[in-house]
């Protein structure tokens, strides 16, 4: 598309996403990888929460976005049931956002092990201790559970079998940038069999 220039230029949406994320790392004061993840429950009721993007893997038609969580959490159960999710990353400092809709698979192998091992020890023990999204008696009970896991697993805990990654493979992506007088720029990328198609959208 002739007018897709500057920050929107290129034939690979994952290259654009990486470029924007790198810019946000230097300009966003906190959590430049934060994204609002949307899922639905068994009744079709939508659910949204913030998670942290940890990897943008691959290129072209084979790229994906990876985050990590407890598989037994509400979002984990909802994703497992539907195999689908959406997210948006918004950077106020850049006045830009990326929206993604796609299918989801587990990242449950060596990449998940490596990321888990890179976390602080207390975070690794916390993953063992927290029954994420389930009722909790008190914060003191959570702290005690984490301390107990430290006794059980020591200083080099393995990754819990109920904790790992989810890989979102987009079927659609949208890149948005703020424009003067609310005349924003929006480009939607739709995945086809052999290429991405790109459409400029009205703001």
UniProtKB/TrEMBL annotation:
Q: Which family does it belong to?
A: Belongs to the pyridoxamine 5'-phosphate oxidase family.
Recorded hits in Gene3D superfamilies, A to Z, give:
Electron Transport, Fmn-binding Protein, Chain A (2.30.110.10)
Q: Where do the annotations place FMN binding?
A: 49-54, 68-69, 75, 97, 132-133, 176, 186
What NCBIfam families does its record include? pdxH, PRK05679.1
- Organism of origin: Paracoccus onubensis
Keyword entries, A-Z: Flavoprotein, FMN, Oxidoreductase, Pyridoxine biosynthesis
Q: By its UniProt entry, which SUPFAM superfamilies does this protein fall under?
A: FMN-binding split barrel
Q: Which residues bind substrate?
A: 54, 115, 119, 123, 182-184
Protein name as catalogued: Pyridoxine/pyridoxamine 5'-phosphate oxidase
Catalysed reaction(s)? pyridoxamine 5'-phosphate + O2 + H2O = pyridoxal 5'-phosphate + H2O2 + NH4(+); pyridoxine 5'-phosphate + O2 = pyridoxal 5'-phosphate + H2O2
| Enzyme Commission numbers on file | 1.4.3.5
Instruction: Kindly give the InterPro entries that the UniProt entry links to this protein.
Output: Pyridox_Oxase, Pyridox_Oxase_CS, Pyridox_Oxase_N, Pyridoxamine_oxidase_dimer_C, Split_barrel_FMN-bd
List, for all copies, the residue spans of the domain called Pyridoxine 5'-phosphate oxidase dimerisation C-terminal: 163-203
Required cofactor names: FMN
Q: How is the cofactor bound?
A: Binds 1 FMN per subunit.
- Pfam families linked to this entry: PNP_phzG_C, PNPOx_N
According to its UniProt entry, the function of this protein is described as: Catalyzes the oxidation of either pyridoxine 5'-phosphate (PNP) or pyridoxamine 5'-phosphate (PMP) into pyridoxal 5'-phosphate (PLP).
Q: Which domain of life is it from?
A: Bacteria
Q: Which residues form the Pyridoxamine 5'-phosphate oxidase N-terminal domain?
A: 29-147
Q: Where are the transmembrane segments?
A: none
Biological process (GO), any one: pyridoxine biosynthetic process
Subunit (UniProt): Homodimer.
Q: Which GO terms describe its molecular function?
A: FMN binding; pyridoxamine phosphate oxidase activity
The pathway that the record names for this protein is: Cofactor metabolism; pyridoxal 5'-phosphate salvage; pyridoxal 5'-phosphate from pyridoxamine 5'-phosphate: step 1/1; Cofactor metabolism; pyridoxal 5'-phosphate salvage; pyridoxal 5'-phosphate from pyridoxine 5'-phosphate: step 1/1
